[in-house]
Structure of Metallophosphoesterase:
Amino acid sequence: MKILIILAIAAVILAAASALEIYREVHSFSVTRYNVTSPRLKKLRRETKILFLSDLHNRIYGRHNERLLQAVRKENPDLILIGGDMLVGRLDEPFDTAVEFVRQLPDICPVYYANGNHEERMKEYAGKYGSAFADYRKALEECGVRFLENDIDYLNLNGQKTAVCGLEFPIYTYKKIRKSYMEKKDVADYLSAFHTSDDKTARDPGSIPDQYTILLAHNPAYMDAYLDWGADLILSGHLHGGLVRIPGLGGVVTPQGFFFPKYSGEMTREGEQTVIVSRGLGSHTLNIRLFNVPELISIRLMPVVENCCNDM
């Protein structure tokens, strides 16, 4: 009997501690910093900082998101990339919070935005959401945000020719519980159909010498296809870190209801390519995070250091 009482007390303490930790994590964020190297960064003149934001879901950190904005400014980035789901695609969730935050970012540096499933839902279901997505996009474009909707843009990043690509998939590919994944060939077709700002079909990244290619792809479920396409840096989100993270195993469950995804909230090197999946900055509906603090990702691209040897 005594043992049962002790076990019951221990269970209550554990449950209370877990609830407190979940509350703390849901209402906080950290800055995760990664150094990224690539043999394709030969023209990069200096260390270059990219901030990656994903899955804010209208979360507010301090009045008018000032805590988050201060963290962004403190990193002093050269480029900001947004991986989608900054809002919540529901009729009872206005997008004002996301607009108020994101519209301030172009004052810091150039900003590129690729849609997630919440933006895609509003975009595809115009009969339900009306002009909500068009209004959202217009409000941000007027402030200087560049949307990439199966588009590619080229820029000179501190001497390095860089391609930034934004991939979006139909909303049906995000259906929960049942598998609704596209075949690898279908994903490849989307990637090969990227269009440039002058509406020309873009070339695959591997065919362009000295170009560094960054792919914004909200859903990491198709990572094998992204890697085969040849992107040098792949940035994804969507999984919210797997809700609960287990040391050594990673995230536990995806929004689609599948367990222990290969990529869930970390940086992974795949040969000379780099995969970064964000744990996201917010949550919605199921507001649970355990050992899974929301994150703002700061990436330092490192110049290639040529080895110089003198004959003796």
